User: Which sequence fits this backbone?
């Protein structure tokens, strides 16, 4: 499949699942599942940071336009995209990223996926919930919301990854 | 000059990040207080029609429950018709005179999109400027109040729901008629708060909370919820009243928008109050 078609399809699938299903879901305990950061994680590893930021901005704004958050999703996704090269560098495998196309758990293994995607998701969720409340005296509530939401988002994104990523031969 | 270019080249990634970040956050924080355009909301044509399609598929799942609720409301209204009363005294009859003037008009609509987990939750409804919706109109359902219209486009409008921070609907606790302002703390979509009630009032748990008529947004007497718990505010002689909303916002589908025919007049007369200067 052409690389542009592949990523456009992922963009649409993840965006629509987020907007049409997960935004309407109210699980309780302040849990809000967000799976669209998976798109940024799965972009090619050698992609420069500027196109990465641009794509994050476009995806974030599209989600915002469909869930009345006026720029909050875009802001937190930009933070995630900005941190991605840093995480990739810190958790780089011994031989570097040669012959590796994308950061899925097929290619990188579950432990890598857990640290990198889990870490990025935590930053993303914390930024999102903190900017939404924007009061320091409710930091406990923000931390609690982050702690409950990240595992739910992570598990959902992990399962979804198997549906949208082809197993490399 | 060369140093400047070198600086830009060196920090271009960071500067690009800051630029986009400032745009996103600026848009977010200005929008909460004052909506400017429909570009980034579900009231724009593309988002609106996408969400309406989704709603057209999903709404059939709740059809039975919704029908039952509408039927129950019909029965209630039918009971109030003069035909369902037996004449006990032959002398009394209803006169349609000029003492009463119709003040409130209702427009029925459907919820297209909701959020519940945010700090400020907005509902999108499939009514817009074409149907005569204007900002600040009240929205309610058969079980309770829903919110106020926040932004209107041609075919859709955004409702700032009671599940948002500064909704401030004026409410009355029955039967004693204590007035207060309805608030929400951003946590549980089933529980709201009434603040600013002096602690020398006695409030019973389970008392009914209804809308007041002060602002003219809602007709008087719409159900809001029931008093659940009363806690005292630390250091102030005030009660914090927790209420259970009578509407379950997770299942909400059919709503009515209130059009107050006398709103303009009310605003005009209240505009004449001189503002206090210290």
Assistant:
């Amino acid at each position: 499949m052409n690389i542009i078609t592949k990523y456009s399809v992922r963009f649409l699938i993840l965006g629509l699942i987020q907007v049409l299903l997960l935004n309407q879901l109210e699980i309780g305990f302040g849990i809000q599942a967000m799976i669209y950061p998976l798109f940024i994680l799965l972009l090619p590893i050698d992609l420069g940071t500027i196109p990465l930021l641009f794509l994050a901005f476009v995806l974030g704004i599209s989600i915002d336009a469909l869930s009345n958050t006026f720029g909050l999703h875009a802001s937190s996704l930009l933070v995630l995209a900005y941190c991605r090269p840093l995480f990739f560098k810190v958790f780089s495998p011994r031989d570097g990223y040669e012959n590796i196309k994308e950061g899925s758990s097929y290619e990188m293994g579950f432990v890598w996926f857990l640290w990198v995607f889990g870490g990025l998701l935590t930053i993303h969720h914390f930024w999102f919930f903190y900017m939404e409340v924007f009061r320091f005296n409710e930091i406990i509530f923000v931390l609690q919301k982050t702690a409950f939401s990240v595992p739910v988002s992570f598990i959902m994104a992990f399962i979804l990854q198997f549906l949208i990523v082809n197993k490399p031969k | 000059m060369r140093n400047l270019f070198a600086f830009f080249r060196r920090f271009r990634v960071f500067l690009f990040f800051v630029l986009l970040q400032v745009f996103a956050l600026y848009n977010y924080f200005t929008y909460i207080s004052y909506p400017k355009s429909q570009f980034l909301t579900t009231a724009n044509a593309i988002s609106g029609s996408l969400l309406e399609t989704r709603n057209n598929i999903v709404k059939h799942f709740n059809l039975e429950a919704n029908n039952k609720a509408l039927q129950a409301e019909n029965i209630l209204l039918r009971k109030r018709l003069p035909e369902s009363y037996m004449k006990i005294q032959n002398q009394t009859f209803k006169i349609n005179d000029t003492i009463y003037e119709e003040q409130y008009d209702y427009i029925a609509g459907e919820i297209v999109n909701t959020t519940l987990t945010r700090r400020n939750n907005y509902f999108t409804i499939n009514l817009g400027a074409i149907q005569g919706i204007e900002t600040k109109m009240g929205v309610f359902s058969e079980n309770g109040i829903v919110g106020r219209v926040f932004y209107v486009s041609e075919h859709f409008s955004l409702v700032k729901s009671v599940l948002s921070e500064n909704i401030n609907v004026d409410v009355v606790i029955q039967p004693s008629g204590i007035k207060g302002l309805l608030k929400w703390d951003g946590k549980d979509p089933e529980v709201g708060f009434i603040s600013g009630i002096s602690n020398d009032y006695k409030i019973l748990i389970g008392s009914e909370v209804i809308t007041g008529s002060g602002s003219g947004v809602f007709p008087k007497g719409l159900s809001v919820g029931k008093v659940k718990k009363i806690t005292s505010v630390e250091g102030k002689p005030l009660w914090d009243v927790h209420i259970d909303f009578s509407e379950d916002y997770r299942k909400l589908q059919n709503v009515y928008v209130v059009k107050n025919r006398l709103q303009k007049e009310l605003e005009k007369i209240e505009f004449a109050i001189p503002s206090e200067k210290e």
Q: What stands out?
A: Chain B has a mean pLDDT of 82. The first strand of chain B starts at residue 104 and ends at 113. The radius of gyration of chain B is 23 Å. Helices of chain B lie at 2-10, 12-33, 45-58, 63-79, 263-271.
